[in-house]
Write a structure and sequence with these properties.
The chain has helices spanning 2-28, 36-46, 49-54, 57-66, 68-77, 83-108. It is mostly helical and 120 residues long. The protein is elongated.
């Protein structure tokens, strides 16, 4: 039961990143990229969404590496000149780290224990 809750928390973080992308790049748009950056980010977050919501192991395995992209973007944009943009970047970094940790906790239950081979 606890692992199921961790799966839902990780999915909530992923959905939070999607919502943050819409708010940040869609409404406030600090980079003025005419929604191109937002669409690229949303597509990369939307493609694995079904597997994340269903709790598929393989999806969580590759999303643990895919989450590095929003993390890197958030860290780079933390030093933006606009204060509210830095706030959005901090939330993005927090959600990325939280998803990564929850992803590892969720996947830990599926790890096979190592067996000791007998030395002959």
């Amino acid at each position: 039961m606890i692992n199921l809750k961790k799966h839902h928390l990780a999915a909530t973080c992923w959905l939070g990143l999607m919502l943050l992308t819409i708010l940040w790049d869609g409404i406030f748009s600090p980079l003025q990229t005419s929604y191109v950056l937002m669409l690229i980010k949303l597509i990369s977050l939307a493609l694995p969404l079904r597997g994340i919501l269903l709790g598929r192991i393989y999806t969580y395995q590759y999303c643990s590496m895919l989450i590095l992209l929003p993390f890197m973007e958030g860290v780079m944009r933390l030093w933006d000149a606009v204060a509210w943009s830095a706030w959005f970047a901090g939330v993005q970094v927090l959600l990325s780290v939280l998803f990564f940790v929850l992803c590892l906790i969720y996947l830990k239950q599926f790890k096979k224990p190592k067996t000791k081979k007998s030395i002959e």
